[in-house]
């Protein structure tokens, strides 16, 4: 078992980014269930995100989704965040919710629509300039629903052209993060369906183009930790979108469906030095709390990442390497499982107390009265949600 | 090759039911793209459905979704249908779009919500009494998102109780059709996830409880024609919801993703006598035309079912049985493929001409001017869609 | 957290059956890697199985595979088992390794082959009569590779006929356990592909026909604990074949791929009273240790089942029910996760010491010298393996 | 519909490579069913392959598997092939059937095993030098079965080292073709699991390193034609291994499971110029005829590829492009489907007659008496199979 203190030092410095949209209403195509107290604007989303940080101490940034989080004055939004103890993070570009995008955004067969989409991506960079964000996260819903609907290769050409234009517009300390997704909302082809496609485009673009691994965006049976290890070896893993899935892109709480997988992923990150503060990897949540309350859902998610990280840190890598080198299959597996089977909750409770936090963030938040306050205060107005 | 004339006789008598909701707007959780000319009420949906029948001749009924298709006067709706040359068909109960149903409808842990859901199911039977519908189709979105969220077995008890109450309420010439679905919108458990669950409940209920096979509701790799053959052998296949999928429940045009699979399914139906007019199997479309126009999408779907049926009818079953009995793997497979590889479009064109229809329904509809008419006429009001 | 002592009492009485074939060589179609010291006959397999029981204390029976484990004198085999501290258990019928079975066994289109297969099943019952085994486990490799190859429904008829004949031959205290499997070795249809098919046949046969759930035999995304809960509710879960999988039927060590899933399965078993000594559920391992040593592989497997069971027993079901009834999604999930996140290894070590065993079975076996002994002793002869 | 004559010209020049191992016995881990008349050495395999070419006219090369097809005198084997009307093609390296490779070949933790594997790869190049083969096809069974068993990243380092050494050894007109596979025989990680991994390695190696797409080696839901289109755009598609699958790597006859998918793949190939004689793409079959006779199985496979190619060639690409540019979803899909729904068997029969062949290769082979001859002649000796 590796050192508890060393583990705590890494855990203390860990940073998990929250998505602003996790605090708004979300749902499936069948129904979005509204929840009481949900934010009505980006300022209220920031306030809620700050609560998650207040109780966990490791979630000091909140990612924006543009245009969902468009405001007149980003300086004011940044100050509101700072006042609440957090900062604004990654900018996520949304080019999928305008009627023009029915057949795609940057890969649309219509050049006018492509131009419109590109202009929006440029506008996102303008937001970054104002918020001081490092990362532009690009996820495209682009794709087709029917064989023959469009030319697969021509769409790649259009995609490459748009990515080059965006990359050229970024400043030297900004990055382009390209996300991939197997399917949904497109049901036949997706223009960036897998890590290989994202990787190939990023390679062409240059060093500041990096791949984002959303843990819910793979085909059944895909070994995600292999992809993580491979991208880290290539220096091309820029970000995670954490969530969990049983079937498709379920966007459930990270670690809820397969905590062992989350542990294996974080172990590969750790092995490659990805937990170092300067690793350049953005660890973000990307979830939908369709039926559970939003803020506790995010707190629980942060805790799940912490627990998996703690276990990854406790792996006795010396014993592991020795068993691996010896071809001792059961022994090597046993070393890994020893760490996974360890109950790390006491260690994390201890860490929180050292950080001046309550050892039980869920209970502390529940006791805080914040939930009741927002239900009482946020009456009237339009609740934020996917699409607003 | 089996007889063309015999095939045409079956094809002439074939009946495919249309879903009223296919004519309204639909989409994914990311975006519903509005289309011009979409119906604004059930009467306009019925009018659109009648167009599909007018050009194909084999789609004379339209299924309703309650409450989406609630009207004050079902007599009037039925007369409107009759005037347009069709009739009202299956009633689909919707107990998933009220805020109360966040944790389930008939399996909700809260007895008050269960009671409300059951009352709605009873109300659907009242609608059936007025429309003269034979079938009550039940699909429940009920399930859970997280392990532990609710008691799997207790939910089965609640489900059984509700089904019994509904079954008891049906008249002797009405049927309960229970649909299953692997997942979505629930992401951990679904209360009726597979055919086995539906089958077991129907068996308990009695003869007029039957299983509905939605071709998009299975796990990857599931052999759907096996299920179809098995249920037919048990006398428990009540209905199809036809559509196609590449990934999850994509609800694409039937036959668009895997026309060979559709052929295999219809071949099993045919072998078991399921194409006979009195087979009791309801062949329905259940699709979402998210990006393509609705009426042509439905026409194309009907044609795809017809083509797969025609191929199934052309299988030389005598040669097939002989090869099967002889253990001639390649020979038996070859007999099946011969039928699949046959171009049946000329045969269907001929049939349509014999029926007094245009041999090319897609072109005939396009020429008819109906599309332009509804775009011009249906201005203002709220377009129908999932949820309305 | 439920009582530790109560948990220990259940764990002390737990019984896990070992498969004789896990001790022989196994592999994939690409290669079977031979291991030193592997048994050369059923007596040596029994001796190895006894080692697993000696170090774990909860694996006192070994299942046989006929004809792999055919011996002249089953009395002698039983006595050898008894001398080693274990007994003979379930009889598994093998009707898939004779050239005659190329197109199936009991569902073969050739009646002579069907007769031969049935005779073998009868012979298996004769073995049961001699060994005193309660359960006849039937897994059929029967199926087809190509569409059209055989008649899906006719094969069901043949299957039903064979099952009836076998069931009729069983004595009143013997059971028929019907296993299902999605695919492999058949690649298009499998004659018993899913739990529904097995369930429907068992229902027809009678009370002593029960379903076997092999945890590796499902389509991707299948919720196994739902099936377990459902079959338990119906009184039709007869046995488990435990193993784990990442992709297909990988037959890896149970709990190695997804320990959380194993825990969820055992929690459903426990909730339904399935851990009671008289539940009638046979908990069996069915694994292939292709690259790891066999005996430690089995010990580890037994321990994994014990750990998952211990966690299932520690779930605070009162708190769980309260949270479920209140619709507290995160709370209910949290109760379940609390148990899963608990490190139960100390509890199991304690239990072993109370049972007079070494608290660390893996280390104790390694120290015992048995592995070295069999390598030295078992030289010459033919190693047992799949097919022998 | 594009021109029939133009299509015939492409079809006349099409070349499909046969795998020598398709003529030997094969099976699953459960059983290899022996067939009468199966070859006993590489010369007999070559003779059988020549039969497939004799009746189809488009399969003039046979790929070798080393060491399965090792002979003393490759000149003699080449002459035997030439006498039979064909030539020797791709060399497939086999580093998975020696006991030393239990934990991997070129990625084995043991440097001595890695050295042995590399030496075998060099020996394969020696064979290529003697046979005049252009392509060295590398598929590695390397991977792990259990989390922690070995270091994912270290294995990539070892893989890269081996690939570099092999690539350096190739002559300027030889190519390295790197195949990927999701899983099997390794069940947790595979060292080259997907096209992205193969692509990244090939990119590093250089121009003569190319990716092989085996149509059976993907996760469920993977869009293979997207990968094909993408690799063609990157100039990195070197070869196909054609076969078909319903579940895992079933290695069934190409086009047997999803003929529409095969058509879509070949359409992408055609669109990118991949059907041109100088495209550099090797179109190979890689199948196992476990239950059907081998030679007719191969003939049927060749015909299936021809039929899919013919349909791909008949797509009216002008109409398709117009519909795509207009955003006409149904129209564009309709153009593609028109070609797929066309019965191309008459066109291929016509082509065969023009080539001096029987229009019905299956029937002509059956009449030829070859099957009866080899059954009579090939008595005694050891039948070839996987592993020999």
UniProtKB/TrEMBL annotation, chains A, B, C, D:
<dbReference type="GO" id="GO:0019301">
    <property type="term" value="P:rhamnose catabolic process"/>
</dbReference>
<keyword id="KW-0413">Isomerase</keyword>
<dbReference type="InterPro" id="IPR050337">
    <property type="entry name" value="L-rhamnose_isomerase"/>
</dbReference>
<keyword id="KW-0464">Manganese</keyword>
<dbReference type="GO" id="GO:0019324">
    <property type="term" value="P:L-lyxose metabolic process"/>
</dbReference>
<dbReference type="InterPro" id="IPR013457">
    <property type="entry name" value="Rhamnose_iso-rel"/>
</dbReference>
<keyword id="KW-0479">Metal-binding</keyword>
<protein>
    <submittedName>
        <fullName>Putative sugar isomerase</fullName>
    </submittedName>
</protein>
<dbReference type="InterPro" id="IPR036237">
    <property type="entry name" value="Xyl_isomerase-like_sf"/>
</dbReference>
<dbReference type="GO" id="GO:0046872">
    <property type="term" value="F:metal ion binding"/>
</dbReference>
<dbReference type="GO" id="GO:0008740">
    <property type="term" value="F:L-rhamnose isomerase activity"/>
</dbReference>
């Amino acid at each position: 078992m590796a050192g508890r203190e060393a583990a705590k030092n890494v855990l203390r410095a860990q940073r998990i980014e929250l998505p602003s949209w996790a605090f708004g209403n979300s749902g499936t195509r069948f129904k979005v269930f509204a929840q009481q107290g949900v934010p009505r604007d980006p300022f209220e989303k920031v306030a809620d995100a700050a609560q998650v940080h207040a109780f966990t101490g490791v979630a000091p940034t909140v990612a924006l989704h543009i245009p969902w989080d468009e405001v007149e004055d980003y300086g004011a939004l940044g100050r509101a965040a700072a006042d609440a103890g957090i900062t604004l993070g990654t900018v996520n570009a949304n080019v999928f919710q305008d009627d023009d995008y029915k057949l795609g955004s940057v890969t649309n067969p219509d050049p006018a629509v492509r131009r419109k989409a590109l202009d929006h991506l440029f506008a996102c960079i303008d937001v970054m300039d104002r918020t001081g964000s490092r990362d532009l996260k690009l996820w495209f819903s682009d794709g087709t629903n029917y064989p023959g609907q469009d030319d697969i290769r021509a769409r790649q050409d259009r995609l490459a052209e748009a990515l080059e234009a965006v990359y050229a517009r970024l400043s030297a300390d900004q990055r382009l993060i390209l996300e991939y997704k197997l399917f949904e909302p497109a049901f036949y082809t997706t223009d960036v369906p897998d890590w290989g496609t994202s990787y190939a485009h990023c390679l062409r673009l240059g060093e500041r183009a990096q791949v984002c691994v959303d843990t819910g965006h793979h085909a059944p049976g895909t070994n995600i930790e292999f992809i993580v290890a491979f991208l880290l070896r290539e220096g091309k893993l820029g970000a995670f979108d954490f969530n969990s899935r049983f079937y498709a892109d379920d966007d459930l709480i990270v670690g809820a469906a397969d905590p062992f997988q989350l542990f294996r992923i974080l172990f590969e990150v750790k092995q490659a030095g990805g937990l170092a503060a300067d690793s350049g990897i953005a660890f973000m949540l990307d979830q939908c709390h369709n039926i559970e309350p939003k803020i506790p859902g995010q707190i629980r998610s942060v805790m799940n990442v912490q627990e998996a990280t703690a276990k990854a840190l406790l792996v006795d890598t010396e014993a592991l390497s020795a068993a691996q080198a010896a071809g001792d299959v059961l022994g090597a597996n046993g070393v890994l499982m020893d760490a996974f089977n360890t109950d790390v909750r006491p260690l994390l409770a201890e860490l929180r107390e050292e950080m001046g936090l309550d050892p039980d963030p869920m209970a502390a938040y529940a006791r805080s009265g914040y939930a009741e306050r927002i239900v009482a205060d946020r009456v009237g107005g339009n609740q934020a949600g996917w699409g607003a």
